[in-house]
UniProtKB/TrEMBL annotation:
InterPro entries tied to this protein: C2H2-Znf_KIN17, DNA/RNA-bd_Kin17_WH-like_dom, KIN17-like, KIN17_WH-like_sf, Znf_C2H2_sf
Keywords linked to the UniProt accession: Metal-binding, Zinc, Zinc-finger
GO molecular function terms noted in the UniProt entry: double-stranded DNA binding; zinc ion binding
Domain DNA/RNA-binding protein Kin17 WH-like intervals: 52-178
UniProt similarity note: Belongs to the KIN17 family.
Basic and acidic residues composition bias: residue spans: 262-275
GO CC terms, sorted: nucleus
Biased composition (Low complexity): 236-252
UniProt keyword Transcription present: no
PANTHER family attached to this UniProt entry: DNA_RNA-BINDING PROTEIN KIN17, KIN17 KIN, ANTIGENIC DETERMINANT OF RECA PROTEIN HOMOLOG
Chain spans, region Disordered: 152-171, 178-200, 236-303
Protein name, entry field: DNA/RNA-binding protein Kin17 WH-like domain-containing protein
Swiss-Prot/TrEMBL GO biological process terms: DNA damage response; DNA replication
Length: 303
């Protein structure tokens, strides 16, 4: 049955029925015909026009497939660069926008069976940067145009110049810090040199005296100088008992040995412990004043 002529009601009805996207497996790229169901595609494949086209393609199938593949790649990359630029985008989103046009070249005519294989090919060719995530394959177009390369090279030169200036400035600051530290730091002292003691000829003999020097006398506010080594010239208190005189009522703590003899060493140490310490000059003045007051009171009582 021949095709309906353009503008006839049959042609318009067929266009309305084929509105929108149809199944990709029911599309014949050689004849550029989209079938609505499997039965229609089977009838088209058995038609005389399709068989003639397949004979022409069969003579050089590789060239036709390569031509379809290059056309699909150029259209896809053109849409990617024009629509998204160098931004990272989901590959399926770009493909959905590409097939939105009804007269596009279908992927079943190319040498790539799936979109994943096509995306991997773009990554291997250096046309785009691809990476796989949980959401799918993402692609980003690589701009290799001469203008973009010149711009990139100029930006790299500017960055290197900026970095070199910063590095030079950091080095200058570090040198200033080291110079300031060297100026403020004290000079390291040389270690002491060991020298031997040698006596020169004709030198005087060194005499060392081991005699103890007399301690200096302490001065009191009254101006009286007392020597603590000399005996106290003041009279002792007659009312105070002599601390050196033993108490007859108190028994001496004497331990006898097994033979009946007293332990002299123990008694000597106990006597030394009981012996009072020598009094100072201030205490001696206080005792003298107390003794003077007592004598005055005794004289007043006798009178």
């Amino acid at each position: 049955m021949p095709r309906a002529e353009v503008g006839t009601p049959k042609y318009i009805a067929n266009k309305m029925k084929s509105k929108g996207l149809q199944r990709l497996r029911w599309y014949c790229q050689v004849c550029e015909k989209q079938c609505r169901d499997e039965n229609g595609f089977k009838c088209h494949a058995a038609s005389e026009s399709h068989l003639r086209q397949m004979l022409v393609v069969g003579e050089n199938a590789g060239a036709h497939i390569a031509g379809f593949s290059s056309q699909f790649q150029s259209e896809f990359v053109s849409l990617l660069s024009r629509r998204f630029g160098t931004k990272r985008v989901l590959a399926n989103r770009v493909y959905q926008e590409y097939i939105g046009e009804k007269s596009h070249l279908h992927m079943n005519a190319t040498r790539w069976v799936t979109l994943t294989e096509f995306v991997k090919h773009l990554g291997r060719s250096g046309i785009a940067r691809v990476d796989e995530t949980e959401k799918g394959w993402f692609i980003a177009w690589v701009d290799n145009s001469p203008r973009a390369l010149e711009k990139q090279e100029a930006s790299m030169k500017k960055e290197r110049a900026t970095m070199s200036d910063e590095a030079r400035e950091r080095q200058h600051i570090a040198e200033q810090i080291e110079r300031a530290k060297a100026e403020t730091a004290p000079s390291p002292e040389s270690p002491p040199v060991e020298q031997e003691l040698k006596r020169e000829e004709g030198a005087e003999k060194v005499v060392l005296s081991l005699a103890m020097a007399k301690p200096a006398t302490t001065s009191v506010s009254t101006g009286l100088k007392l020597n603590p080594l000399k005996a106290n010239p003041l009279k002792a208190n007659p009312l105070k008992a002599n601390p050196l005189k033993p108490n007859p009522l108190k028994k001496a703590n004497v331990f006898k040995t097994a033979g009946g003899s007293a332990d002299k060493e123990h008694t000597d140490s106990s006597a030394e412990k009981k012996r009072p310490a020598p009094i100072s000059a201030a205490e001696a003045l206080i005792l003298e004043e107390q003794a003077r007051k007592r004598r005055r009171m005794d004289r007043d009582n006798n009178d």
